[in-house]
Amino acid sequence: MAHHDEEINRIADEDYGQEKNREVFLPYRCHSLGDITNYKSHPGNVVEAASLAAQILPPTNYPLKDALPPHLILDCKLSDLQLEGILHACQRHQMILPKGARAGFYLGDAAGVGKGRQIAGIIINNYVRGRRKHLWFSTSHDLRIDAERDLKDINCFIKVIDGCQELDRETRVAGMSPQVKDGILFNTYATLISSGQRGFNPTHTRGSRIQQILDWCGDNFNGCLIFDECHKAKQFIPGNEAASTKAAVAAIALQRQLPKARVVYCSATGVTNVKNMAFMERLGLWGDNTAFKNVENFIQAMTTRGLGASEMLAMEMKAAGMYVSRGLSFESAEFHTVEINLTDEQIRVYNLSARVWQQLAEAIKKAISHTKSSASRIWTVYWSCHQRFFKQLCMSLKVPAIVREAKAALDEGYCVVIGLQTTGEASLDNEITRQGNNTHGYISTAKEILVRFILQHFPIEEKTSKGTKINAWCKNAADALLQFIDNINLPNCSLDELIQQLGGTNCVAEMTGRRGRIVCINGSSTPVYQLRDTDSSSDHGLESLNVREKNLFMQGKKLIAVLSDAASTGISLHSDTRVANNRRRIHITMELPWSAEKAVQQLGRSHRSNQSSAPIYKLMTTNVGGEKRFVAAVAQRLLSLGALTRGDRRAATGADFSEFNFNTSYGRSALKLMYSYIQRGVLCPNITFSSILQASTLDDSSYTISQFYIDMKHCLLDMGLTASLEARVPEKDATDVQRFLNRILGLTIERQNLIFSYFCQCLTTSIERAKKEGKYNEGVTDIKGTSIVMVDSPKEIFTEVKRGNVSTKQVTLCVDRGIDWPTVLKLYHEQATDPLDGFYCSRNRYFNRKFYLFALYKAHLDVFSVVRPNTGFSSYMENSKDLLQKYHKLDLSDAENGWKEQYNSTELACIHGGSCKFGSYCTVGIRINRVHIICGGIIPMLSLLESMLTNCARKYNLSKEQQTLRIVRVQLDDGRKIVGLRYPEPIISEVTTVLKWAVQQRLLKNQGLLDSATRLPTVLQEGSCYALADAVLLTVVGGAKLITEDDDHVNERLLKRAFTKPLSIRNYFTTQQNNLHGQENKQGEKLNDNQNNSSNNDDIVVISDVTNVSPTHRSMNGSSIPVRNGKQKAGNKRHNKDIHTDSNNTKRHRQLKVFDAFQQNGQNKTANSDEDSADESDDSLLIYCPVCNHCFPSNTSNQIINQHLDQCLAGNADDS
């Protein structure tokens, strides 16, 4: 009977023919460009997460085309996907959220797509429609240059103001200069949280930079508010601003002070955790008239449902038109995990280090007892230094292997990029200070961490009635520990050692944030401390040190680059086709950053658009079990990052780091299970002692299981988790995977690998149990079948809770999973090679029939892969012993009839036969099944859908698999793809009934007719789900629609101004050799060419035609007028007989120069308007502005003319 139930359950669990989605990326295709035509494809292989690719952006009718000159599209200044991002951002900004704030847009594109150009396009569209002030925040002041570059790349010359510092410089007693009254105010997040004299307080902004920014914006600000690299504004904790990051608090304050601002959140790594979305208020995912009352409810709802809910959220945001996320394809990039086996000497050093920390812990316990010191602070610092010590030690132990990898790569014609996070500069500075600046030799950062902890935190003073005194025992213990540390021979600083072994600073381009380093100068064998900028030439001027190093690498003068977190944004190290160094990059991750966003930023430095080859990534990790903790921490974030910002948890980088992800619900369950059985002194069920030893690579036949139990208890004691060998692990630590992976670093290699192997075995068991129970969530899964077609058209459902333009639709699919006889026979002839391969029949009868299957034996795993006539390929591997016990092998002749009978009888019926008590509701083993998928707006309905599924499970005999909410993806026979939530059809009807009842209750309540005794629907009575009814009512309230505004028309004057290079004294009065006689400049001549000629013509200054600065716009002034230059040479005065100046008065001379230019312009204008007139009347002396042709009376003072010129050149002259 047990085998009978197990076999039926196995078939039932395969009810939908699902398997994990292996297709991570798909090529991106634009589908919603509105009336924009003649666009060009993006110059790069851009992809999108496969799950997001099945979601289409909503249609748009926004008139973006009116705001962009045609040449931007025709010349591919903006590609199709960039135009699509701009278009949907602008359309989203026309929506007003229920509380009156303007809706925001999230631009989640990765490197290679052009986020900067899209931001520039969004700003241009708003600028030419009359919104002339915009705010742009980013991480670094240097990125302002990139912002200006992105604008100029699309021929836009809107003023980029250099932060609040330029506002300070341009503010005079009379007020702010016209040049900074509008444009793009570019600031860093550091500037945003800085203050004047009062300190930073977002609720009291007087005297702060925020207030200065708000004053610049003015009243009713409705320009763009760009949060570039918005991951810097994460970690906003609602209700606890003191614990939030200052950048997040400031971002929230700015959004609330500017409710009509057009907010754009821009980052490829902005939401690695749902909690980090808390500052993104303008997305409208929570608040009044939404499904979530506040951000706390939203975060709780998303986190309790795991990454599956995050995947749905990303897809729903795209469907609503508030989010796009594309990235450069990683198809050509390669990912390798390289495990480094430590040498015997390295293992000896590591084990000695572990014993030192264990002895230090014992000594601290006794010292605390002797000195009666406070223990809590000491242990907090102890474990912090413990973790940093072993992290530095692991990095140092990797250096020899990384040097070998780097040199091998150079020999094979590659160049190398080595990524790390920490440089050890703090330890270096501390050690240099401790040695009195007399450093001769390399410094071990690991040793410095340990020594500094003992010197600063080891308790040696005890309090007495007369004060404090040195405790002799404690002092001797500390000295003994320090002496022992000196004898360990800990490795040198990993970064300095790495640079030295790879050829020194002449061969390695270092891009880090440290000021100095230990180097060997001019071949000397004695290393000395040296400031990094001393080996840089002063010819580079203000160019930053890291940029100079980057240029040397890109030019091929240095073939190895080392970068830390300081250079992880804004620097490109890819094999750019425009630079000399076109070698393929080998990107070695020596140390992964702590956060996923930093990891992606670092990996993205060597993989960008316009590259000749994609990089090869090598993730270096030692075979030390605890060292995987650092990989695990970031791997978890990378998987989460993929789910939130790409719609698939493996899409963050293109690499699958799931093997390193231990900090999951399954990992926590496995850890608690392991602790429990260690304390009992027995092994976990389904785990063998031999499998633990094999996984730990322990080669000792004399090692017994009793020794293993004792070692495991000692491990818990050395990790500080228990106070004695018989004590239990506290409940708060029992599921703390992060603490476990941190603490095992301090164990010896042998014990560390043993306990880590044991944990991995428990994790595998935990996952297998979850799969059997139908609770394992692998993310987006594919529905597979031999034929999948859509039945009828998608039907809109749950209209009672429709939010905005996002509707919820039910899609019904007809899925045929069966494998007919000719197909399986072909499979048999092609793949059957083992004697055990072939057709099998069940030994027992199930529901008056026998079951048939085809099995292929996997000898190396001792399992069978199985194919059934009615359900096709099984996702489960059958244990060989179990299968042979339940089935016996058949000849081909005996198998054919049974196979065909099972194939035909299950076409439209379950395996229970005609006597099934659940009738048509039962789908167990059915071959042709109807699968129902809910698409569109799902997130607001999650709580209700889950509760209804639980309440109705027994009523409709749902299997364990059917009772679990799954995000599924399916490709139809016609090629169309659908992504949504798989949900049983009968329960969709039940949910609809509940929603209609809830709407009626809401209407009755509003009319005062609601009777407390009103009978609930039957489904709500079952299980006493009165709370569910309240949740439904709240969801109904969320049905309010967004208000959509009409945008302003394009202002032609602002359009012309945006794409015309602004005039200034510097570029308007330019030197032109060809204009000595007033000749007109050629159309389209570049300003740089004009400036290059200045060295040969210092004596003549020409007022140029406006057409010189932009080939697309012509000035009203047609001629060029020679004027005397203040630096005129005596020998060239004959060229300027028409100009009279007072050379004895320099101050007066400068005023007359401008005045005479205006006067000459007036003379030319009069001559041009009436060429035949010989009248030399006073009208010929009228003065005209060369910019706007405004006419001044002949008696106008120079002061008035100069004031007009200043305003006119800044674009603010009064045309009247």
From TrEMBL:
Q: Report domain SBNO alpha/beta positions.
A: 820-927
Identify the GO cellular component terms for this protein. nucleus
The residue range of the signal peptide is none
Composition-biased stretches, type Low complexity, lie in 1089-1110
InterPro entries, per this entry? P-loop_NTPase (IPR027417), SBNO_a/b_dom (IPR057332), SBNO_Helicase_C_dom (IPR026937), SNO (IPR026741), SNO_AAA (IPR039187)
- UniProt record, GO biological process: regulation of DNA-templated transcription
A Gene Ontology molecular function term of the record: histone binding
Show the taxonomic lineage: Eukaryota, Metazoa, Placozoa, Uniplacotomia, Trichoplacea
Q: Where is the composition biased (Basic residues)?
A: 1126-1137
Q: What is this protein called?
A: Helicase ATP-binding domain-containing protein
Describe the location of the Strawberry notch AAA domain by residue ranges.
42-351
Pinpoint the Strawberry notch helicase C domain residues.
495-782
> What family does the Swiss-Prot or TrEMBL record give for this protein?
Belongs to the SBNO family.
Query: What segments bear the compositional bias annotation Basic and acidic residues?
Result: 1079-1088
Residue ranges, annotated region (Disordered):
1078-1148
